[in-house]
């Protein structure tokens, strides 16, 4: 069965008025509880080291598997990303969707 995986990448470095700070682990967990859990029923979160404009930063990814026709997933992910940009003063968030295949065990 053909399914889709959409991943959003959330950087944690905040540069506001040349003052550098970061989204804390507590901030991130609160964001998940308030803005993600009630909008997306099944997802995975991963932690990475990313680079933005040549600078290293902690980056989280949110991945969701869904059917192509599930427009609510994409709509909710875009809304979540916009909220993160506003709250944590981010320049952008990458949203990447790829086709994948679900393999089932055959008995």
Structure description:
This protein has about 110 residues and is of the alpha+beta class. The chain has helices spanning about 25-35, 70-90, and strands at about 1-10, 15, 20, 45-50, 55-65, 95-100. Strands 4-5-1-6 form a four-stranded antiparallel β-sheet, with helices on one face. The protein has a two-stranded antiparallel sheet with strand order 2-3. The chain is elongated, with a radius of gyration of 15 Å. The model has no long low-confidence stretch (mean pLDDT about 90).
Biggest sheet character: 4 strands, antiparallel
Radius of gyration: 15 Å
**Helix/strand order:** EEEHEEHE
Strand neighbour order, sheet with most strands: 4-5-1-6
The end-to-end distance, rounded to whole angstroms, is 17 Å
Shape: elongated
- Structural class by helix and strand composition: alpha+beta
Mean of pLDDT: 90
Uncertain regions spanning at least 5 consecutive residues: none
Care to count the β-strands?
Answer: 6
| Helix content, binned percent | 25-40%
Annotation field: number of helices: 2
Relative strand content:
35-45%
């Amino acid at each position: 069965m053909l399914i889709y995986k959409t991943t959003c990448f959330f950087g944690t470095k905040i540069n506001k008025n040349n003052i550098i700070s970061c989204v804390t682990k507590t901030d991130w967990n609160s964001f998940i509880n308030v803005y993600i859990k009630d909008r997306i029923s099944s997802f995975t979160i991963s932690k990475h080291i990313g680079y933005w404009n040549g600078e290293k930063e902690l980056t989280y990814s949110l991945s969701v598997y869904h059917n192509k026709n599930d427009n609510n997933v994409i709509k909710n992910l875009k809304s979540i990303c916009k909220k993160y940009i506003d709250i944590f003063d981010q320049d952008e968030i990458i949203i990447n969707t790829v086709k994948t295949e679900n393999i089932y065990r055959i008995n």
